[in-house]
Amino acid sequence: MSIERVFLIVLDSVGIGEMPDADLYGDKGSNTVKACYSTGKLDVPFMKKLGLFNIEGNGYGGNCQQPIGSYGRFAESSKGKDTTTGHWEIAGIISEKPMPTYPNGFPPEVIDEFERRTGRKVLCNKPYSGTEVIKDYGREHIETGALIVYTSADSVFQIAAHEDIVPVEQLYKYCEIAREMLKGQHGVGRVIARPFTGEYPFSRTPRRHDYSLVPPKETMLDAIKAKGLAVRGVGKIYDIFAGKGITSTVRTVSNDDGMEKTLEIAKEDWKGLCFVNLVDFDMTYGHRNDVEGYTNALNKVDSQLERLCGMIGDNDIVMITADHGCDPITPSTDHSREYTPLLIYGKKIKPGVDLGTRSTFADIGKTVCHILDVPESICGASFKSEIL
Fold first, then answer.
1. Which of 35, 287, 320, 367 is 20 to 30 A removed from 16 (C-alpha atoms)?
2. The last residue of a domain, from among 146, 180, 212
3. Residue 339 and residue 336: Cα distance in Å, rounded?
């Protein structure tokens, strides 16, 4: 009997060591998983059994003598190290050009047009930490009603506003305006709504919303949907792909919420792909250089992954990967150009298969389509025959 369901879980930013071109991105020496291991508190026995520390290039953690999963590491072929580029590549699109970034803020023609269309002035307009920007500009925003616009090392246009000053639905409309504007030369990967609340120093709320570019080509998601199978997004998957190729979606407020919702989905009757993004690793810990928080989050998800793998059916497969790195002990708080891990578990998976180092994340999407017997025209090379 063929495989009927694939659970593809992206541990957002859980990289596993610098890529050869990491120095071009300012990321020499980055290794997100090793950074967590260096705390002495990393405790991920299930992922270790799957083969996490058997992956090529790891010299820490101790090999598992009889891993129960297949494993490997994947290089990013696309130009970039952001969430959109990474997820698109997993799904079969290799981006030849990096999405635009704005280390000096957005040019006047962008800001002037945004102010004209929204009727509100703009504060900040520079790269900033999301938690620090509301500390530094939040009070002025409340006094003036101006929108806090900022970016990062990623290709993002972020708009922060206090929920009492700009209701969330209105903030979303401003983001839609920005998304419609930012195309072509200024086609950033994501426009992000960043609502916050409370009194100084303020708190960000979980009602963040991402507005991505529409993928320019067919993805794994489109191919699976066209076959009449389900494509179930969990977390910000819907946002990353601008809804393209998704048949249903559930929002999440944390890693824990995302995994619990995935566990519920596993109990339901459907066939196809469940595509999950666990964003806390990146948003809450990586970008804040909180290595202890990052480590604890990995420990928690490890036990939830074990629960998921313990309840899947005979014709199900679980794949665990990442979209880039975000080493929490380097001076930078930005994403890092790293290899990503892939761990695969299922009752029909050959245990202990070492996939080595693969040249592109797109091999994952290609393989998912082949496993589900879905016709496709995406990038990548399938490793189905190696693992089944």
1. 367
2. 212
3. 9
What is the domain extent for residue 154?
A: 125-212
Q: Are 69 and 51 in contact (CB under 8 A)?
A: yes
How many angstroms separate the CA atoms of 90 and 378, rounded? Answer: 10
Element (H, E) at 164: none
Query: What confidence score (pLDDT) does residue 336 get?
Result: 96
Instruction: Please state, in angstroms and rounded to a whole number, the distance separating the CA atoms of residues 65 and 73.
Output: 18
Give the single-character DSSP code of 242. Answer: T
Which tokens hold the place of 354?
Answer: 């070492």
Q: Which of 67, 30, 51 is nearest to 341 (CA)?
A: 51
Backbone angles phi, psi at 211, to 5 degrees: -120, 100
Q: How many CB atoms lie within 10 A of CB 319?
A: 25
Helix ranges restricted to H, 237-343 = 237-240, 255-267, 280, 291-311
Distance CA 165, CA 202 (A): 13
How many Å apart are CA 180 and CA 331, to the nearest integer?
Answer: 35
Which tens digits make up the pLDDT trace of 8-51? 999 999 999 999 999 999 999 999 999 999 999 999 999 999 99
Q: Binning pLDDT at 50, 70 and 90, where does residue 53 land?
A: very high
Encoded tokens for 65: 């003598």
**One domain for residues 78 and 190:** no
Structural contact between residues 60 and 149, judged by C-beta atoms closer than 8 angstroms: no
Cα–Cα distance for residue pair 297/281, rounded to 1 Å: 7
- Tokens representing 28 are 């020499």
Residue owning tokens 């705390």: 39
Is the pLDDT assigned to residue 1 strictly greater than 60? no
Query: Taking the chain, what is the end-to-end CA distance rounded to the nearest angstrom?
Result: 12
| Cα 59 off chain centre by | 26
Q: How many domains does the chain have?
A: 2
Please tell me the predicted confidence (pLDDT) of residue 154. Answer: 84
- Assess if residue 129 is contained within a domain: yes
Full-model pTM? 0.92
Percent with pLDDT over 70 in the chain: 100
Reported as half-sphere exposure (CB side, CA atoms, 13 A), residue 107 has a value of 6
